[in-house]
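Supplementary Note 3. Input sequence used for the single-chain structure prediction.
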Amino acid sequence: MLSSTFLAVPKFRIIWLFVALLGAPACNSTTPEPAPVAPEAPVATETVLTGSTLLAEVSAADLAGRVQGVPLAGSLVRYPIKAYRLTYRTRTPEGTETTASGAVLVPVATTALPVLSYQHGTLTPSSETQAPSYYATGSDVWSVVSVLASTGYVVSAPDYLGYGASKALPHPYEHAASLASASADMLRATREFCEREKITVNQKNFLLGYSEGGYATMALHKLLEEKYATALPVTASAPGAGAYHKSAFARYILGATQPLSFLSSYVWVLRTYDRIYALNRPFSFYYQAPYAVQLQADPFSSVPSQQAQLFAPAFREAVLNNSDAPLAAALANNDIYDWKPRAPLALFHGTADDYVPFFNSQDAYDAMQKRGATQVQLRPIPGGNHYTSAVTYTLGAYAFISQY
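The predicted structure, written as discrete structure tokens, is reproduced below.
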């Protein structure tokens, strides 16, 4: 997720990062312009917004106070903001209509403002109140994202399914289609809300997110260009450290000999795909004893860091040999690295990320370039891991979208 840790970085360090990121060479595609794409499919015109509640009105001084440890961050504050909770209609992975929620941050300004869709990072059920629509003190949306909004963006921040108004549902963790559709419908609801409240916005739509939020951002960008190219055109997007190449990531995990600190997250991914794609495998198919029984009782219980201790040998071989067609199809359905974006896209990723390996962004960049994408950049963060890179990502992504 976008990290508030950058707020503790010394001023000279932030200035240096801005200069470095704005001026650093990026890997840019130099291939010819892509061929014209087919017209987008017709989009339903029904409204999706179902309700709104004012959560807070925050002065510029109060916003600056939330980042008072860093003078430069406080100086970015330009407008006071209003924070709202929206509810809206969207669909579950199974296609059932449901009510979801999210936060909208509106700068108090008189000029037409762009809209920025912010996709948050992983939240376990125990962190429910960190979802955007709670606007909880100390959360990303309350701190970093509010400062970003005050610079002149109407921020649309979906909770995702499984949080906020839809918390009774299981969160479809790392499921590309539903992360994208929930975020797109929240973006639609945000623009409907702005129209209803006479908040002037222009046609620009920016997309940001890190970790699961990076994955959701990539999925959202793809969906918007396929389905909403006219209604919600993407101006630019900057996904960070997302697991875009799910099939390769699965092989990486199941072939690893080193300890992996994120296996509890991967258990969540497997549980999501098993349910959504109706694989309906017993826990013993995926996990060895005693973890199969343990995880069935408590899906968020602790697991070992060695994959060979956790996963069942037959499951491991099925992934490594690509011999389980339904499982392989579920993973491939969530591969979102190999497509051709038309709007500018910058991939940020730490080169030493041992939580979501760097190859996810490298593979995406290579595949997009091969398909003829002309405005894709790869922005490696040298030596950065999944957590330390969040600082550089935040600053770099802001610098990137500010060009447009």
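Residues 1-25, 29-42 have pLDDT under 50 and may be disordered. The radius of gyration is 21 Å.
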